[in-house]
Amino acid sequence: MSEIADKEFQHPYFFQTPFSDPGLVMGGCRLRNSDTTVSNDVEFKRPYKNKGIFIDLFVIDGIPDKESQLRKLKSRLKLYWRLLRYAAYYDCYFEKGKKYPVKRLLAGKLSLGLKYIFGIERLSRGYGRLCSKYSGRNTKQIAPLEFSRGKDIYQREWYGGTVYVPFEHMRVPIPEGFDQLLSATYGDYMVMKRVPPVHRPFTFDTEIPFSVYYAKRPELEEKSL
After folding, report:
1. Alpha carbon of 158 to those of 32, 70, 140, 179: distances in Å?
2. Is residue 144 over pLDDT 90?
3. Does 150 lie in the same domain as 72?
4. Alpha-carbon distances of 52 from 16, 40, 205, 210, rounded to whole Å
5. How far apart are CA 210 and CA 225, in angstroms?
């Protein structure tokens, strides 16, 4: 998708990756609407530029079928991801005046050293290569490694075909194994559950472009109180 994004997505839509908008490190990519705004304290501090309303997009990679190889891969991904996130958003993870465990502080300093030597873009490419190590192989299992680092694991056969289902005013394609996929991810997904939020609360504005909103953010948020 990165190869065709510039042709397929015209303003106001922007295909955001760690390379099209340096500073984005979220285990995937985002399709943003540049004429809108999404905001919270975390989003405000992040160094990437485009902060329009978005949808997340995640790549599904092949993973090893052998349990020993999978454990090794998950361990490496966990360490790499932690260092990458620390390097990209150090000030968010290490706030001034707060105390942190020595092990975490050392990891933070190591991440800054890696950032200084290699840069975030090169570190991000290395993480992507590690995630795609088993892609192209006919493994039985697949996973969104960049995002979940092996926490969510699916069977390749669930993506063997496509079915169309109604959504709002159109019909959309989904994997034929959607029931198994949703069950593996959410359990009994047909039962309403009260679960903690994944993200901090967001402020959405569909009328104001993010470039205007963030320039006037203190004034706008004061009026909304």
Report:
1. 29, 20, 10, 9
2. yes
3. yes
4. 10, 12, 9, 6
5. 19
The rounded percent of the chain whose pLDDT value lies above 70 is 96
* pTM reported for the whole predicted model: 0.84
| Single-letter residue type at 14 | F
Of the two residues 55 and 217, the one the predictor is more confident about is 55
Domain membership of residue 134 (yes or no) is yes
Neighbours of 146 (CB within 10 A): 22
In a domain, 198, yes or no: no
DSSP state letter for 197: -
What range does the domain containing 98 cover?
61-154
Torsional sign, CA 21, 22, 24, 29: positive
Statement to judge: residues 139 and 70 lie in one domain: yes
Q: Which residue carries 């019909």 as its tokens?
A: 171
**CB 139, CB 64: distance < 8 Å:** yes
Contact at 8 Å (CB) between 144 and 61?
A: yes
Element (H, E) at 54: strand 53-57
Note the pLDDT tens digit of each residue in 10-37: 999 999 999 999 889 988 999 999 999 9
Regarding whether 218 and 164 lie in a shared domain, the answer is: no
Q: Are 67 and 19 in a shared domain?
A: no
211 shares a domain with 183: no
Are residues 148 and 172 both part of a single domain?
A: no
What is the total count of domains within the chain? 3
Report the pLDDT value the prediction gives residue 92, as an integer from 0 to 100. Answer: 86
Buried b (16+ CB within 10 A) or exposed e, 173-209: eebebeeebbeeeeeeeeeeeeeeeeeeeeeebeeeb
Do 50 and 27 reside in the same domain of the chain? yes
Residues 74 and 138 in one domain: yes
